[in-house]
Amino acid sequence: MKDMTKYQGVIPAFYACYDKNGEISVEGVRALTRHLIAKGVKGTYVGGSSGECIYQSVAERKLVLETVMEEAKGKLTVIAHVACNNTRDSMELARHAESLGVDAIASIPPIYFHLPEYAIAKYWNDISSAAPNTDFIIYNIPQLAGTALTMPLFREMLKNPMVAGVKNSSMPTQDIQQFKDEGSRNGRDFVVFNGPDEQLVSGLAMGADGGIGGTYGAYPELVLKLFNLVKAGEAEQARQLQYDIDNIIYAMCATKGNMYATIKEILRRREGLDLGSVRAPLFELVPEDDAQIAKCVEMIDAAMAKWCK
């Protein structure tokens, strides 16, 4: 039996870390890894949307993962998103991730061309074959990938014994129940992660084992509190905390700059972390964003004082 407890909990998505010239900041990657360890989260999801993976080269993505693994030293569950928009590079990243000893690799479907499901299954299985001893997590994010994980495609993927879970970022929470139920049949070890940060309470209620979120890194203490409230059966308190978290998310999305640029600036102000900005074509912060960012910081501070005494 696999140890699936390593996936059960709060797993912030790792942010892209850049220096002043827009290159990968190794020190930034190290600092963010140490920060997450200190906050007590279960793990981190490296190289996904928050990591700006589609705007980074294979070499850059390798460097980021290598640095995370060197700094984490087994203190975090590490899931490496390895998808590129071609199979060859994705397999190369999968091989590299397995050589570093990550806990799992993950992949969205190929984007741009609308491929038939048998081609998507082959893409995922080819990636998995390059890391044959590593768990494979399907990343279902149809609103960005343009392709949804249907039940027929899911059942086809379950023929691969290394498929261990789904990171579900579709909005309908019943998808979590369907994937969890189908994946766990016949005593199979299987996990489902809630993706949309705005509905972690709902996802956990529907059977998600944990959450992987792009905003978690801005306020990991709040997400840990929410997770523990749900597990303790404190439904009303968990709902109220989810409302507070959602209001913070809406505020972070109200800047002209990209939300991840906003989060990195919040981390600079609140935690002293210098992670740089975002890579074009993602839009950087502009001076008029300053007041909104200050509001976000105040909201997070107030929520911390309210929930994390």
What does this structure look like?
- By secondary structure, this protein is of the alpha/beta class.
- It contains 12 helices and 8 strands.
- The longest helix is centred in the last third of the chain and has 18 residues, at 235-252.
Strand order of the largest sheet: 1-8-7-6-5-4-3-2
Strand content: 5-15%
Main structural class: alpha/beta
- Rg for CA atoms: 18 Å
Keywords summarizing the entry:
alpha/beta, about 45% helix, eight-stranded parallel β-sheet, about 300 residues
Give a topology summary.
Blueprint (H helix, E strand, L loop, with lengths): L9 E3 L13 H14 L3 E4 L11 H15 L4 E5 L5 H14 L3 E4 L9 H13 L5 E6 L1 H4 L5 H7 L5 E6 L5 H10 L7 E4 L5 H6 L4 E4 L6 H12 L3 H18 L6 H13 L18 H18 L2
Parallel strand pairs: 1-8, 2-3, 3-4, 4-5, 5-6, 6-7, 7-8
Helix pairs in contact: 1-2, 2-3, 3-4, 9-10, 10-12, 11-12
Short description:
With 309 residues, this protein is α/β, with parallel strands linked by helices. It contains twelve helices and eight strands. The longest helix is centred in the C-terminal third of the chain and has 18 residues, at 235-252.
